[in-house]
């Protein structure tokens, strides 16, 4: 029982740092990009500002749509890969 | 009607009741921030969340039959047929399930009355643990798993419960800090409109993820009861009517809106503004999705609460009401033991009178407690009209009857 407890702690720590890493990059990074796009939209330079805002916003929308696809795919019991930019759904491994 | 059928019907009804409480208990996880910042009107927010939960519940084809197995040794996953896989008799399983569900509901209702967000899954699992301890003994509970994957009370409840609010708080505080630095000096009015939009999108994602995860748990419990009574024999599928009623129950609960809990989360911890709201919802969504991808079972409630605290830490000069946070953490620590005590007691009541009469008695106990707590809640109501009112400085809990809040530093 003691052993199994140690296993659980190790497995949990292994998962936790991954969750933390991914979440800091996406969960804090994307809002920052979103804020940047709002900033560039509000900047005085109209054309450059709008283009920059559009590009940044596209990245954020891509991430949100990916999140949506991820929920749908895992609800269906399937795997989803983001390796090729366009998310690909496949049967669960 | 045989005693077994009667017990099965009561288990199904009680499970749906749990699903309903699960809905309104967790509305705030996705929507508290949007309501507090005014991104969505309260009624619109709960309606949106309800629709997302309904969709989410239907999306989930993958089955959470293993939800009970995480803490109770209910079946052997290597068996070939569903019925043969059960490790205990069907009647025994029904007794444990009914008592466990009641433990979960009672804790959900009590914490709702007190306006405290707490994990509905932990409440359900706690109730089941209590019923299992008195029925099967200490050994019947899966405490630590077998060491090959995160499992058991430690791997599925304790460790994620400690880690997830901290992770969410770190992410949301970094996000908030970055946003404030980036948009510093811009006209607030214009900025806020953009951030409110961002909030609505991320909050919808959180609701959808909630629907896929939480409705599944009740579907798993009902299907398990059907297997126990020989009405179903698949370990990898759920009858369609079960899916339908579970989806409706969780969506209806969500639409009711757990206003007391929304108020605590949205106003009681931190005074959130739109810039923080985006950081909160983005953090909650990513932490939930990243963890479910890695098989780390965490509670939406803990993540959402952690994110809101993080938004308070990350905003320069902001204040976190730690007294509220302390009350919430105390509730989280008590969830499993308290639900276990109710679940265990209910099991004893049921067992003393036999399956048929016992189940009816348990159900009547649950109704009595539910009616009592509901009547208490009418003394001082929280609803769509006053959910986002300013939080009074020395208010310990939202509109809780004064005699229920005693002592302590507010």
Question: Gap between N and C termini of chain B, in Å?
Answer: 54 Å
Mean pLDDT of chain B: 88
Low-pLDDT regions of chain B:
406-410
Unreliably modeled segments of chain A: none
- Domain unit count of chain B: 1
Please tally the helical runs of chain B, counting DSSP H or I stretches of 4 or more residues. Answer: 14
The overall strand count of chain B is 0
Radius of gyration of chain B: 21 Å
Order of helices and strands of chain B: HHHHHHHHHHHHHH
Describe this structure in words.
Chain A contains two helices and two strands, in the order ααββ. Chain A is mainly alpha-helical and 93 residues long. Chain A has one domain (2-91). A two-stranded antiparallel ribbon of chain A has the order 1-2. In chain A, a hairpin with a 6-residue loop joins strand 1 and strand 2 (88-91). Chain B has one domain (3-387). In chain B, helix 1 (3-37) runs antiparallel to helix 8, helix 5 (90-113) packs antiparallel against helix 8 (188-228) and helix 8 runs antiparallel to helix 9. The relative contact order of chain B is 0.21. The chains are: A mainly alpha (93), B mainly alpha (410). The interface between A and B is large, with 41 and 60 residues.
Topology (elements, then pairings):
The complex is a heterodimer of chains A (93) and B (410).
Chain A lengths: L1 H41 L3 H30 L2 E4 L6 E4 L2
Antiparallel strand pairs in A: 1-2
Helix pairs in contact in A: 1-2
Chain B lengths: L2 H35 L4 H18 L6 H4 L12 H4 L4 H24 L6 H17 L15 H31 L5 H41 L11 H17 L2 H10 L5 H20 L6 H15 L7 H31 L2 H23 L33
Helix pairs in contact in B: 1-2, 1-5, 1-8, 1-9, 1-10, 1-11, 1-12, 1-14, 2-8, 2-9, 5-6, 5-8, 5-13, 5-14, 6-13, 7-11, 7-12, 8-9, 8-11, 11-12, 13-14
What features would you highlight for this structure?
heterodimer; A: about 90 residues; mainly alpha; two-stranded antiparallel sheet; about 75% helix; elongated; B: about 400 residues; disordered C terminus
């Amino acid at each position: 029982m003691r052993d199994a407890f140690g296993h659980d702690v190790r497995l949990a720590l292994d998962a936790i740092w991954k969750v933390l890493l991914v979440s800091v990059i996406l969960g804090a990074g994307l809002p920052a990009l979103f804020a940047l796009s709002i900033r560039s939209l509000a900047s005085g330079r109209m054309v450059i500002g709008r283009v920059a805002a559009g590009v940044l916003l596209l990245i954020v929308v891509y991430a949100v749509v990916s999140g949506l696809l991820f929920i749908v795919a895992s609800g269906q019991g399937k795997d989803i890969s983001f390796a090729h930019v366009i998310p690909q759904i496949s049967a669960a491994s | 009607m045989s005693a077994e059928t009667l017990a099965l019907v009561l288990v199904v009804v009680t499970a749906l009741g749990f699903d309903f409480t699960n809905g309104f208990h967790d509305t705030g996880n996705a929507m508290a921030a949007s309501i507090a910042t005014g991104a969505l009107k309260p009624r619109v927010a709960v309606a949106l969340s309800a629709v997302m939960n309904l969709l989410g519940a239907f999306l989930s084809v993958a089955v959470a039959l293993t939800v009970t197995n995480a803490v109770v040794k209910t079946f052997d996953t290597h068996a070939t047929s569903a019925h043969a896989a059960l490790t205990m008799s069907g009647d025994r399983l029904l007794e444990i399930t009914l008592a466990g569900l009641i433990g979960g509901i009672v804790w959900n209702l009590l914490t709702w009355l007190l306006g405290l967000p707490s994990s509905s899954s932990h409440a359900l699992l706690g109730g089941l643990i209590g019923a299992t301890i008195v029925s099967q003994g200490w050994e019947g509970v899966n405490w630590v798993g077998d060491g090959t994957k995160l499992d058991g009370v430690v791997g599925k409840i304790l460790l994620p419960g400690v880690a997830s609010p901290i992770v969410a708080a770190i992410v949301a505080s970094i996000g908030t800090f970055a946003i404030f630095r980036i948009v510093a000096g811009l006209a607030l009015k214009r900025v806020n409109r953009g951030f409110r939009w961002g909030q609505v999108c991320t909050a919808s994602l959180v609701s959808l993820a909630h629907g896929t995860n939480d409705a599944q748990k009740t579907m798993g419990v009902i299907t398990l009861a059907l297997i126990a009574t020989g009405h179903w024999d698949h370990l990898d599928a759920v009858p369609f009517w079960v899916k339908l009623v579970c989806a409706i129950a969780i969506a209806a609960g969500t639409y009711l809106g757990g206003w007391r809990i929304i108020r605590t989360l949205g106003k009681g911890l931190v005074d959130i503004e739109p810039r923080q709201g985006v950081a909160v919802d983005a953090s909650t969504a990513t932490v939930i999705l990243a963890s479910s991808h890695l098989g780390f079972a965490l509670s939406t409630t803990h993540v959402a609460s952690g994110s809101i605290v993080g938004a308070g830490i990350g905003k320069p000069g902001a204040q976190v009401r730690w007294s509220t946070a302390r009350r919430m953490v105390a509730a989280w620590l008590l969830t499993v033991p308290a639900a276990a005590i109710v679940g265990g007691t209910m099991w004893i009541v049921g067992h003393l009178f036999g399956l048929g009469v016992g189940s009816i008695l348990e159900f009547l106990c649950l109704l009595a407690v539910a009616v009592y707590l509901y009547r208490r809640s009418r003394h001082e109501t929280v609803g769509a009209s006053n959910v986002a009112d300013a939080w009074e400085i020395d208010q310990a809990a939202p509109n809780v009857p004064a005699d229920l809040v005693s002592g302590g530093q507010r």
